Amino acid sequence: MKHIDKEIYSQPNITKRLRPLSIGYWVTAAAGVICTILFAANQNASSGLYALLMLGMAIGDFVLLLVVCYYIFGDSRGPYSKECNGFLNREFSYYSRQTRPALEEALSNGSLDALLRCKRGTIPDIIVVRYYDDEETLSYCQLLEMRNGKECPVSEVFRLTK
């Protein structure tokens, strides 16, 4: 059995795409670049304009650095469902060992409602990893068990419906 994080991308209707950043990051980064250009072009500016350009340059260039680091080092890629035209969210739910039969039954029946009715806990004996869209019309789930501090898959990846 493969872990759901590897198995999810083998589905025919799911691809890995860049997650878009909000427009505020791009506007602030563009303002920083503009302030940098104006600062370099206006060497004889007044002290007020000089300070304003320095502030805009510092903030904007810092945000530009954050954007670049996000795309190079961050979690910038995610599962995109062609079926629902959106990114899938990932959720971890923790359960006690006693709920394992009910969880396995809910997954094998493909019932999301039955899965959501199972009582959650705080100790990660059994972990349910669930990928779902914003409207929760599409869900992929897998049961994992903690063994010696590692997550081990104990079920296949199931597609659930509401």
Give an overview of the whole structure.
With 162 residues, the protein is α+β, with helices and mostly antiparallel strands. Helices cover 41% and strands 26% of the residues. It has helices at residues 4-7, 23-41, 47-73, 100-109, 112-117; strands spanning 14-18, 77-81, 86-87, 89-95, 126-132, 139-147, 150-153, 158-160. Strands 4, 5, 6, 7 and 8 form a 5-stranded antiparallel β-sheet that branches. A 3-stranded antiparallel β-sheet has the order 1-2-3, with no helix packed on it. The model has no long low-confidence stretch (mean pLDDT 87).
List the helices and strands and how they pair.
Blueprint: H1 4-7, E1 14-18, H2 23-41, H3 47-73, E2 77-81, E3 86-87, E4 89-95, H4 100-109, H5 112-117, E5 126-132, E6 139-147, E7 150-153, E8 158-160
Antiparallel strand pairs: 1-2, 2-3, 4-5, 5-6, 6-7, 6-8
Helix pairs in contact: 2-3
The biggest sheet amounts to:
5 strands, antiparallel
**Rg on CA atoms, Å:** 23 Å
What's the rounded overall pLDDT mean?
87
The helix-strand sequence is HEHHEEEHHEEEE
Terminal CA distance reads: 25 Å
Structural class: alpha+beta
Give the total of beta strands: 8
Residue fraction in strands: 25-35%
| Helix fraction bin | 40-55%
Low-confidence stretches: none
Enumerate how many helices there are, as a single number.
5
**Any idea what the shape is?**
elongated
